[in-house]
Amino acid sequence: MRILIATDAWHPQVNGVVRTLTSLKRSAAALGGDIHFLTPEGFSSVGLPTYPGLRIALPNRREIARRIEAAQPEAIHIATEGPIGWAARAYCLRRKLAFTTSYTTRFPEYIAVRTIIPAALSYAVLRHFHSAAAMTMVATGSLYNELGTRGFRRLGFWGRGVDTSLFNPDCPAKLDLPRPIFMTMGRVAVEKNIEAFLSLDLPGSKVVVGDGPQRAALTQKYPDVKFLGEKTGADLTAHLAAADVFVFPSRTDTFGVVQLEALACGTPVAAFPVTGPLDVIADHPVGALDEDLRAACLRALTMSRETCRNFALERSWDNSARQFIGNLSALQPSRSLRPAPIVAGQHAVRG
């Protein structure tokens, strides 16, 4: 099956969406999925004042059409709700082509912490965006239930995985820091709630891997914390493997692939009991969830690193890709694009 995925999130961005899509392409190939991407590359862009360092593409309608038609897809999936996603959605609706979407980022919460725009308004916009899709794929059961109560319909599952060959405990970085080492990794931005971790009274050392608009301010406010900047590939793996506990303080992620990456390196997770950690960690003995994040960090120290690794080994990207392609195959049994469903009221019962 020839698949086109439209996404506003793409290299050089380093985030869960980009890692998910690149891993999906690699695993899908062995399952007969020929994935091509419609990305911001080649379009003019503009910076967002509320997201320093982040730029969004300004797609041209004619060029969007040209690129989609050149790909000759048998199925179209829209991964993000940015300008590329809206342009691909408009193209499909004009031509009565079916498409699927995925809900991967809590934009309403992200926007609410940076602007005066209420989350309810953003959810209304996203509900409209996804209402035209034949299926909106979500990664977890808790997110499925939450979106259902918010009026989203035609929801389906698409789980996530981890590359256990890349992420492994074999060669931990040599960090000359007092133990235990509590580490977090990701975009250093207010919506990631990193300060909830940095402000904790913990023994040993705190380490932040990643970059973002809050890094300078947090470095100055917390001089005892080690900010190591962005890490990729084997270097990232080595640092995750060197930590005693991986702290995931976010309350707004829909999944948090980095949790699985840390577990694959043998590092237990400490997090709040919210969507993402509740679905990944749940009651498995590979991490600790608590509204008292300090208590979760200390409890995670007692977890078996071998158990963490074995847990991750059961969650492969191959299974994730198989589920994704299965969703498309069920919607496109003729291996050709069908007319998109008629957009009914926003509060229809999900199916």
Please describe what this structure looks like.
The chain is of the alpha/beta class and about 350 residues long. It folds into 2 domains: about 1-160 and about 320-330, Glycogen Phosphorylase B (Rossmann fold), CATH 3.40.50; about 180-315, 3-Layer(aba) Sandwich (Rossmann fold). About 40% of the residues lie in helices and about 15% in strands. It is built from 14 helices and 14 strands. The protein has helices at about 15-30, 60-70, 85-95, 105-115, 120-130, 140-150, 195-200, 215-220, 235-240, 255-265, 275-280, 295-300, 305-315, 315-330; strands at about 1-5, 35-40, 45-50, 50-60, 75-80, 100, 135-140, 155, 180-185, 205-210, 225-230, 245-250, 270, 285-290. Strands 2-1-5-6-7-8 form a 6-stranded parallel beta sheet, sandwiched between helices. It starts with a strand and ends in a 20-residue tail after the last helix.
Brief summary of the model shown:
The chain has helices at 16-29, 61-71, 83-94, 107-114, 119-131, 141-149, 195-198, 215-221, 233-242, 257-264, 277-280, 293-300, 305-313, 317-331, and strands at 2-6, 34-38, 44-48, 51-58, 75-78, 100-102, 135-138, 155-157, 181-185, 205-209, 226-229, 245-248, 269-271, 287-289.
